[in-house]
# Entry
Amino acid sequence: MGIIERIKEIEAEMARTQKNKATEYHLGQLKAKIAKLRTQLLEPPKGSSGGGDGFEVTKFGHGRVALIGFPSVGKSTLLTMLTGTHSEAASYEFTTLTCIPGIIHYNDTKIQLLDLPGIIEGASEGKGRGRQVIAVAKSSDIVLMVLDASKSEGHRQILTKELEAVGLRLNKRPPQIYFKKKKTGGISFNSTLTLTHVDEKLCYQILHEYKIHNAELLFREDATVDDLIDVIEGNRKYMKCVYVYNKIDVIGIDDVDKLARQPNSVVISCNLKARTLTLILHVAQQLNFDRLLAKMWEEMGLVRVYTKPQGQQPDFGDPVVLSSDRGGCSVGDFCNHIHRSLMKEVKYVLVWGTSARHYPQHCGLGHVLNDEDVVQIVKKKDKEGEGRGRFKSHSTAPARISDREKKAPLKQ
Ligand SMILES: Nc1nc2c(ncn2[C@@H]2O[C@H](COP(=O)(O)OP(=O)(O)OP(=O)(O)O)[C@@H](O)[C@H]2O)c(=O)[nH]1
Ligand SMILES: [K+]
Ligand SMILES: [Mg+2]
# Structure
C-alpha cells in the first residue's frame, strides 16, 4: 500500500471514531501516524536529486512573496498589474503552467513576486502541480493567498489544509513547548500552567509512537496534540499569509464589507470596470492595491537601515534591508550586511530612530534596529573622529528622523 493510501485509511478510521475521553489517546496516536507519513511523503523519492522541473527561480531582491490560489482567481492578472511583468491571463483554468517572477518596487526596496499555477484540492498529495507550487511557497517569506471573492468561503479552508498537510503553518507562531531528546533518564514531563488539551499519558503515547523513550518535555502554553506533534516533527515552517479577496467588482457591497473585516484580509479588484465600486468604498486608489501593498509590507517585517557617513546626511534612497526572520536586525547583522570583516573593526555605532532612547544613542553590536533607523559606524582606530563625530552628530540629526519622531514618539 502506498503512503497516500495509508494516510487515507487512517483518516477514514479517525472519521469513524467518536471523539470522547476514552478515544482521545487512540485519536492522538492516529494523528501522530499521519504526521509521520506526511513527512515521509515530503522526502524526495530515492534516486532523485530532489529537483523540480523549471519551478526554481533565482531569488532576487529583499524578499520573496508567492501567489497561491485556485485556478482562475486572478493571480496572473495581479502579478502583471503589480510588477509590470506580463503573465498570461485568461478565463480558462490552468492558464499558468510554471513559475513567473516579477518585481515590486516599494518603500525603496525590491520584492520578488511569484506567479504560480493554480492548485486544487489534493495538491499536497501530488494532484496537479501542487507539490511543486507548495515547495515554491515554502521558499518564500510570505504567502498571498488569492481567493475569488464571489466563490465559497470554503476555498480558504481547503487551501489552508493543503498547505498544512505539507508542514506550512499560516499566521501561527511556533508552539511554546520545550522538547529535547535525551540518551537516558526516561521522560520528564512538566508544564508551567494547567493543560486542558493533553495530559501526561497522551504525551507519553505520542512520544512512544515516535519511539522516543528519553526526553525532556516542558509545556509553556496550553498546547494541543497537534502542537506537540509539530514540535516533535520539527520541520514545520511558520509563515505569514495575507488573504487577498480578488474580483470584489462582481459581489455586493455587504459581502465586500464582510470579507474586508476578516483578519489578515485585503479585498481588491483587478478589473478596471470596478471604478464605481471603489467610489462607494471611498478608497484612495481605485483597486485597493495600495492597501494590499501596505499589508504585504507590514507582514514581511523588513527593516530599512540608512547609513550616515560622519558629517554627512544619510543616503535615504539606498537602505540596508534586514529582516528579523532572515538573518536578524541587530547592529552586528547590519555590519555583516555591509562587509563581513566590518564587525571586527567597529568600536560602537551611533543610532537615530525609533530604536534609540535618545539621539544619537551609542550602541553595541547586539542593539536591535528598527525600520528607518539611521546608523553611523565608529571604528576602533578612528579615535579622533569619534569625539568630534559624536559631538557634531548631535547638531546634525537627520531631518527625516525628526519628522518621523513628531508622528511617532520614541519608545522608552
Ligand atoms: N471580474 C473580475 N475578473 C477578474 C479580476 N481579476 C482577474 N479577472 C479575470 O479572471 C480570469 C482569470 O484570471 P487569471 O489572471 O488568468 O487567473 P489565474 O489565477 O492566474 O489563473 P490560472 O493561471 O489559470 O490559475 C481572467 O479572465 C481575468 O480577466 C477581477 O478583479 N475582476
Ligand atoms: K486563468
Ligand atoms: Mg495564472
The CA atoms of residues 353 and 373 lie 4 Å apart. The chain has a mean pLDDT of 87.
